[in-house]
Amino acid sequence: MNVPCLQSIAETLFSDVRDLSFDGIGVTRESYGRGESATAEYLREFAKQQGLDVHADRAANLVFRLPGSGASPAVSWTGSHIDSVPQGGNFDGYAGVVAGLLCLLEQKRSGTRYRRPLEVVAFRGEESAWFGKAYMGSGALFGKISTADLDLKQRTTGQTMADCMLACGADIEAIRTQQVLIDKSRVKAYLELHIEQGPVMVARQLPLAVVSGIRGNVRHNRVVCHGDAQHSGVVPRWLRHDAMFAVADLIMRIDEHWRVLLERGTDLVVTTGIVTTDPAEHSVSRIPGHVSFSLEARSKNIDTLEAFYQLMRTECTAIERERGVRFEFDRRLLSDPATMDTSICDVLSKACSAQGTRFEVIPSGAGHDASLFANAGIPSGMLFVRNQNGSHNPHEAMDMGDFMLGMRAMHSAFAQLA
Hints:
Oligomer: single chain
Mean pLDDT: 96
Helix content: 25-40%
Low-confidence stretches: none
Number of strands: 19
Largest sheet: 9 strands, mixed
Strand content: 15-25%
Distance between the termini: 21 Å
C-alpha cells in the first residue's frame, strides 16, 4: 500500500472540502442544503477523475464503487455523512467517506480486489441540527422518513425537508410512502470509520477504538412551559406562575434522578441544550410567561430510555400542579440503540492488532448511520479514530497519522470479509 501517496490524497480531500464549506469560524454543510451539496458535487468530480463509478441513489446519497462491480449480488458497504452542524468541524462524518474512497483507490492502483466488492456511500442529512431529525439520507433508504418528518422546517430558511430533498434530486414520493429504497439482502456488511466525538481515546492514548454499540436517544426539540407573565416586583412567590422557575425545577429534578440512576450502574446521559424566553417580550422586570427548551436522553438500553422518559413526564405533571403552569410538548423523536456485530468487531480488532496499533473496544455515545444498518439486520461495525477537542465544534483536530492507521485497518478488514 502506497501510504504516503494515499495520505496526500486524503489531505487534499479534507483541505478542499474545508475551503468549500468554511463559514469564517468552522464548516457549515447544511443537510440537503448548500454546503452539503457543494461537497457532494466536489466528491462526484473527484471520483470521475480517479476513474471510479459514482451515482446518486433515490435519497440523493452518493454511491461510489470500482468500475464493473455494480452487478455484484453481494457487496460490503462503508461510508458516513457529509453534512455538518452549523460552525462545526471538518472531520465529523466526512472522515468515513474519505477512508472509504481511499480503500477503493488502493484496490484500483494495486490491482487487488476484496473478496466481496466494496461500495462507499456519502450519506446526506445525518445531523439533527437542521431539521430536528437525524438520519435523513440513511433513514430514507430503510423507509424510516414519515410525512411528518418531511414537513419539518429547516432552521434558517424555513423550507420543508421535502422541498430540500426534492431540490437535491431525491424521490420524494417514494420516501413519503416509506418505500424501502435499498436491497438489504445484497448488503452483507456495513462498516463505518468515524472520529470519536468525546475525550476517552485522547485520555487513554488510543489511536483507534472498535465500537461495541451505539446509544439511542429520545428527545423533544421544543417543549414550552406556559405560565403567567406579571410584574416582577409585585407578585409574591406563592401567587406566581413562573415558567422559568418551573423549567429550572424540572431540570434539577431530572438531574437528581439521573444521579441516582448512575449510582445504580444505569447507562444514561441527559441534556437540555436550548432554553429560551421570547426576546420580543422578555425583560429584567417581567416574570416569564413562556419558556421553551429542548430535552434529550441517551442510553444503550431502550427500556432505560422509556422509563426515564415516563419519569420526566411524571415530574412535569407534578410541577404543573405545584406551580400552576402547563408543559406543551412537540413530537417525541426516538432513535433505537444499536449493537455492533461481534464477528465484525473481531475482524476490526484483529486488523488493529496486526498493524501493531493500540486500541480498545468502547461504546459510542453519539448516534451514527451505522445504527440503522445494525437495526435493519445488516451486520455492522464501527472504527473510531482519535480526535482532539471533541466534536460539533470548529476545533476538531484528528491527526492524519491516526486517520491513516484507521484507513489501513478498514482496508485489512474488508480484505477479510467474505
